[in-house]
Amino acid sequence: MVKYAFATEEQRELAEGAYKIVKNELEPRIEEYELADGGLGVYPMDVHQTLVEAGYFALSIPEEWGGLGMDMVTQGLIIEEIGKVDAGFAFAFAGSGCYFDRILATKMPDEEKQMWADKILAGAMGTFCLTEPEAGSDAAALKTTAVYDEKTDEWIINGTKCFASNAPNAEYFIIFAWTDKSKRASQGVSAFFVEKDRGVQLGKKENKMGLHLSETSDVILDNVRVPADHMIGEPGKGFGMALGGISGAGAIVNCAPLLGMSQACIEQAVEYTQQRRQFGSRVVDFQAVGFMIADMEMRTQACRSMVYDALRAADEGVKTNLDLCIKAYTSDCTMQTALDTVQVMGGYGYMKEYPAERWMRNAKIFQIFGGTNQVKRKNLLKTMIERDPMKARK
Ligand SMILES: Cc1cc2nc3c(=O)[nH]c(=O)nc-3n(C[C@H](O)[C@H](O)[C@H](O)COP(=O)(O)OP(=O)(O)OC[C@H]3O[C@@H](n4cnc5c(N)ncnc54)[C@H](O)[C@@H]3O)c2cc1C
Q1: Is any ligand 1 atom within 6 A of the Cβ of residue 88?
Q2: 354/17 Cα distance (integer angstroms)
Q3: Residue at a domain's end among 203, 220, 243
Q4: Residue-range definition of the domain harbouring residue 82
Q5: Is the CB of 126 under 6 A from ligand 1?
Q6: Could you tell me if the CB of 380 is within 6 A of ligand 1?
Q7: Number of the ligand 1 atom closest to the C-alpha atom of 211
Q8: Each residue of 304-335: pLDDT tens digit?
Q9: 318 vs 177, 235, 311, 325, 384, CA distance in Å?
Q10: Which ligand 1 atom minimizes the distance to the CA of 167?
Q11: Which residues contact 215 (CB under 8 A, 6 or more apart)?
Q12: Which of 2, 178, 272, 381 lies in the 20 to 30 Å Cα band around 132?
């Protein structure tokens, strides 16, 4: 049941419709997907397609391009509900369908943009490729280059991206590359829309601790040529775009799945600790256990308020600094909630018979990707304190 107090009847119906699909089609087979491909895990493409056909994919594509142009709050509710079953799937599903605004920002002809809108609405997945082996938190250390070929009016892209979520299933890639190395990254890096069939190769599929339903791999660009009109936005503006806040689409991808996971943790903890008896009492009645569960609820409600506040602000075009707080806070809270769920279930929480151990493994990555929580804190602090004048003089 949708927990967001301000949800309308229509929003509840939409979100609960998505939940029913994943509950019925994904939940009974999660272990099968988790263990598939020699234990690397596989993205459940059949469930993806069922959700696509029910109209749940790429919800922000504007109506004039054939989409629903759905508001951020409703999208958040839908992804939260999907996240109750598996946050990794919710992350991959939402994340792989949120790039049409980047395609719109290219100079490709409208027919080509329409063709991509149609493909995406039919389920085509995309991938965001910023990180490189030597450029993680320090994204400006990226090495990928794009060189303009005047003769053919094309960009020639070379480089290797790593840890790209959804890359093994993607039909197109958002690539960040240097177009002018004489400048700083904020002026010398540009973004490109690159279709897979232009010669993009995939590297090894990663063997991860969790998030097995979201496949991750290297993306290799070896003299890949794209027409000049595939640049996203203006030359040199790619880096700012890559690091842009996560208050809107980013909150849906990075935070809404966590609200669902936290909710699932709470429901599991409440149910289990009421049934489990030790020393003649329900374990929920031991205050040490019960208070952990009460804290889970407090944290989750606080995160929910913050996430939907950010989404409402994004819908109304209001600028807030929530994007600097939201991802780190929500993922730290969810990690604690997942850890505590295992704890209150004792040894059974540690067993694969229950989903708590999967939630714990899945929660961890949300503190790392999309900018680590240390880097988020660093950036937040920067907005709160004045620049050191002694340093500024150097
Ligand atoms: C499963 C998974 C999926 C991912 N998906 C994508 C994707 O789709 N697209 C994409 O582009 N990238 C993706 N990433 C990459 C992800 O964003 C990076 O892993 C992340 O930004 C951290 O970079 P790093 O791993 O190189 O860690 P590092 O940057 O090497 O950090 C190591 C440690 O140092 C800390 N640290 C670094 N710099 C500072 C600093 N200045 N101050 C304080 N602490 C600091 C970090 O917080 C961390 O604890 C994914 C990663 C994973 C694991």
Answers
A1: no
A2: 25
A3: 243
A4: 9-121
A5: no
A6: no
A7: 1
A8: 999 999 999 999 998 887 888 899 999 999 99
A9: 31, 27, 10, 16, 20
A10: 8
A11: 40, 41, 42, 43, 92, 165, 166, 167, 168, 169, 205
A12: 381
Tally the domains of the chain.
3
> What CATH number has the domain bearing residue 289?
1.20.140.10
Which pair of structure tokens corresponds to residue 261? 């996971």
Tens digits of per-residue pLDDT, 136-150? Answer: 999 999 999 999 999
Q: Is the CB of 368 under 6 A from ligand 1?
A: yes
Under 8 Å CB-to-CB from 91, ≥6 apart: which residues? Answer: 83, 165, 211, 214, 253, 254, 257, 366
Query: In testing the pocket of ligand 1, which one of 89, 219, 375 has its CB within 8 Å of the most ligand atoms?
Result: 375
350 CB less than 6 Å from ligand 1? no
Q: Which two tokens stand for residue 195?
A: 């279709």
3-state SS class at 56 = coil
- Of the pLDDT bands very low, low, confident and very high (cuts 50, 70, 90), residue 388 is confident
Pocket test for ligand 1, best of 138, 189, 369, 377 (most atoms within 8 A of CB): 369
Assessment of whether the complete model's pTM goes beyond 0.90: yes
